[in-house]
Amino acid sequence: MKTLGKKIRLLRHQKGWSQEEVAKRLDISIPAFSKIETGITDINLSRLEQIAVLFEMSVVQLLTYNEVEQDQKIASELENVNKKLMDRETEVIDLQKKVIELFEELRHKKVANA
Questions:
Q1: Number of H helices, E strands in the chain
Q2: Topology of domain 2-65, CATH
Q3: Which of 6, 33, 57, 110 is disulfide-compatible with 61, CB 3.0–4.6 A?
């Protein structure tokens, strides 16, 4: 159970929540939650379900949660976001070129009409 407690602590830290905040959300005392995180207290199924819901995952995901897998998932998501950002930058550059071309075209027409 100590491993599960470490997973719960890691998830709590990732959310930026204090033990007090999580304890309130679970409607338990801070010492009771601390005992869950340290593995002193075994977690029953209903409490496990409650914790899984709190962290927006299934009980299976909570039990099988792996920091390495999570890091890989985050890295993959970052890669996708980075690609989208690069695509947007390319679009912005193309639009800037079009604006410059249109400006030059207008300038040449103005010079020709003068």
A1: 6, 0
A2: 434 Repressor (Amino-terminal Domain) (1.10.260)
A3: 57
Percent over 70 (pLDDT), the chain: 93
How many other CB atoms are found less than 10 A from the CB of residue 6?
15
Decide: 11 and 55 in contact? Cβ < 8 Å: yes
Q: Residues 5, 38: contact at Cβ < 8 Å?
A: yes
Q: Is 33 exposed, middle or buried (0-12, 13-18, 19+ CB in 10 A)?
A: buried
Higher pLDDT, 16 or 64: 16
Please state the pTM of the whole predicted model.
0.57
3-state helix, strand, coil in the chain (%, to 5): 80, 0, 20
Containing 105, the helix (H) or strand (E) segment is: helix 67-113
Please state the domain extents for the chain. Answer: 2-65, 66-114
- What is the rounded distance in angstroms from the CA atom of residue 53 to the CA atom of residue 5? 16
Residue 40, CB half-sphere, CA atoms under 13 Å: how many?
6
Residue written as tokens 């010492």? 31
